[in-house]
Design goal:
44% helix; 9 helices; globular; alpha/beta; five-stranded parallel β-sheet; TIM Barrel
């Protein structure tokens, strides 16, 4: 079923028609031009592994139709510890001394807040309104993790973004 067909099914339901439901994919499974014709929104997964340069994000925004919506995943430096296998796709070496103490788990560190600034800059360039924070299964509801979440989300400048949380695991 194509995106427009799925959306028309949703529009036919009077309860759903009053709710903002958008149908899109994580990434571009089709050529971008074709994707733009079929779907109104995309979630960028690449931003989780290695955010693009702001200039690249601006170019993507300009290539898309004006009404097209980008959402993105926050950079893994915010959510995942350096021991995560996802760091293999980072494309950047981390300082040895900072690896275990500075990154991931929403730690209120300079490095994590810098990763937020990078994520927010890319989101602004894309004119995105939604940023998803995907946490790994190891991010359990411990006292430390809950304290990190509170501190992180109370200290970042949200700039009007809608922030979503995608916990993984049980």
């Amino acid at each position: 079923m194509e995106g427009k067909e799925a959306m028309s099914l949703l529009d036919d339901n009077p309860i759903i028609a009053q709710t903002a439901i958008k149908v899109g994919c994580c990434g571009f499974p089709l050529k971008k031009e074709e994707y733009y014709r079929r779907f109104p929104v995309v979630e960028l997964q690449q931003t989780f592994y290695k955010p693009p340069k702001v200039e690249t994000a601006r170019r993507w925004r300009l290539q898309a139709p004006p009404s097209f919506e980008f959402t993105l995943k926050a950079w893994q430096l915010i959510t995942h510890e350096p021991s995560s296998p996802t760091y293999r796709r980072l494309g950047k070496r981390l300082a040895e001394k900072a690896k275990g103490l500075a990154y991931g788990a929403f730690r209120p560190t300079e490095e994590v807040f810098e990763a937020w600034e990078t994520t927010a800059a890319v989101a602004r360039a894309l004119e995105a309104t939604i940023i998803i924070f995907q946490s790994p299964p190891s991010f359990d509801p411990s006292l430390e993790h809950r304290a990190n979440l509170r501190k992180f989300f109370s200290e970042i400048e949200r700039r009007g973004f809608i922030l979503g949380w995608e916990p993984r695991g049980e």
